[in-house]
Amino acid sequence: MQHPWCPEKRELPAHLACVVDWLRVTPPGQVRMARESALAGIERLASELPAPRPVGLNVRLFRRLLQDVGYSDVGAADCCEGAMLHGELSGPSEWPEFPRSRSEQAPWSVEEAMRAHRRGRSAFLSKVRPTEQDRALWEHSVADAAAGKLTGPFWSLADVAKEVGPDYIVSRRFPVVQGDDVRPCDDFLRSFVNRTAWCSRKLKLPRVDDFCLLAAALFGQGASPRFWKVDHKSAYRQIPLRSSERKLAVIVFCHPESGELCYWVHDALPFGALGAVYGYNRPARALVHLARVLLHVPVDSYFDDYWGIECHQTVDSGFEAFKRLNNLLGFVMKESKERSPRTVGDILGLEVDISHLPLTVAVSAERIAHLRALIEAVQEAGLLWPSTAGPLVGKLQFASSGIFGRVGRAALQPLYRRQHAKKGSPSLSKHVRAALDFFLQLLADPPARVLPLGNARPPVVVYTDGNGAGCLGVVVFERGRPPLVVSCRVPQAVLDLLVVRKQQIALIELIAVIVAFEVFAEAVRGRDVLLFVDNRTAEGVVRNGYARRAAHDACALASLLWLRCAALGVSLFVEWVPSEMNISDGPSRPAEPAKSRDILSLSPVWRQLEVFPEAVERALREDLGWPLRLREA
Looking at the structure, do residues 552 and 505 belong to the same domain, yes or no? Predict the structure, then answer.
């Protein structure tokens, strides 16, 4: 069976794969010469085109380069001349089409949004009150105005009308506190501006997995990869706003001293507008495409974070070439976030290590400290409102991408339910409290995520099965050895702990999987494991690491399973198999000897389990809050 992370199954994007293949067959010296030649050609082209503005992006050069390489979204250059906040939001052909559902609200026209805003403007402005962060909002706004990104302040609506015309929409500016920093954001949702935009293509950006896949591709070529990282400075604010859109980009907040309402008008993409997400990411992805095609740099991006990975002989050349391309196009880099080529460092807020296989991704110490402080604050208050649960869930969900396997996914479920609760008490329920306890313990020393990009040893194959009477069967195949078989019955005391439902077969099948890893821990330690189950529900719970709805018992078992995998260093892959092909079906039915004929023909090492694993009962009895088993392997 093909390994789920086999390079033939997970593919790099076409243009990125071409770059990797070209680097593989091209000598390092020739790589450097080709990049210098390409940059010299871009500089000559820039000198032949009409000179750009002294400050800003070289739109003509950008558009010409995109046309020359046949890029699917030449309009990305037009965004750099003046982006839109309303209307159709499109993108390159690599982004999938995003047809509107019949259930979705139709986008409003600008006129409809303005009428709705005018009706409620007086009531809206009367609710704009001073906040503790108004000083920070004022300082950010003054700095933006000095940089030509914002116009103002204006002290009356009459002054605003003189600037943008009689019809306009005012959005409230509010603070987003990020550690010691305050970031201004504008509420274009409640002002109806975002209702005037609609997406014809779904934004599709790479994540940490794509970064690791690129690193793995280079490892597969025998290279010693290094990676670098750069950021655009005030990324959105480098993209100007089309003058006709300024009437949609009026903002308001209170002066930090007088408390008087002060109005400003955006001249660049604002944070909080749906159009700004596309208005920046379209040029960003176009820039990545140019670097790949013209400079042969294996680069990728997520919003304003850009990274490149290549072998140590040429990585410095790619790093410098990408920065020079940005400079020629007029993009300004943030020097404080620039990271020169290395093997260990930060990508998208996670610590990655590509110095050797397997690749690892971990949650940074700074992020861990922040999350633990948030959880402790909730526990101390004894309350978790839906509005507070949302940001906490988002932060924990992102952190889980740097934690082993599916560890933590089950514990997120009670927090998800609190986030979307329409009514009820904000006090901490049993399951919410258990989830918070779980994450507090987990974040004390979270197991790093390991990217299973192939194992020198062949995988261990495990079949598990269970029946309605609580009988379990497990068969473990390891190349060169006779199969290991165990049969047992789930004690009634354990079955009594399950949530009452019409049938418990899915939970019993899930318990069988856990028994496999408890009993045969040494056989699977540090190995890739291909797990076969014949129950679709159990397969989904194992694959996802959690159960949907309010299945607390299934979530507790899923949490136990993935913690056990983390403790053993197991890379687990699960597949469904029809019951008639499940070789563990016989061991789970000791009263039906005929069903064990096939496995008996293999001369297995078979035993009947007399002592049922205590961990299963503890997980069910104490929910997610029982002590983590990361040190018990």
Answer: yes
Please, where are the H alpha helices in 147-247? 157-164, 208-220
173, containing H or E segment: strand 170-178
Contact 562, 545 (CB under 8 A): yes
Q: Is residue 426 part of a domain?
A: yes
Three-point CA angle 194, 197, 200, nearest 5°? 135
Q: CA-CA distance, 205 to 201, in Å (whole number)?
A: 12
Same domain flag for 372 and 484: no
The answer to whether residues 419 and 368 belong to one domain is: yes
Tokens of 275: 């159009």
Q: Coil, strand or helix: which one is 534?
A: coil
- 318 vs 322: CA distance, rounded Å: 6
C-alpha to C-alpha distances, 591 to 176, 471, 487, nearest whole angstrom: 64, 10, 12
Among residues 449, 477, 492, the one where a domain terminates is: 449
> How many Å from the N-terminal Cα to the C-terminal Cα in the chain?
28
Q: Is the pLDDT of residue 26 over 90?
A: yes
Q: Is residue 549 part of a domain?
A: yes
C-alpha–C-alpha distance, residues 450 and 455, integer Å: 12
3-state secondary structure of 420: coil
Give 540-576 pLDDT, tens digit per residue.
999 999 987 767 888 888 988 999 999 999 999 999 9
Number of domains in the chain: 3
pLDDT tens sequence across 215-264: 888 876 667 899 999 999 999 999 999 999 999 999 999 999 999 999 99
Q: For residue 596, give its domain range.
A: 457-625
Length of the chain: 633
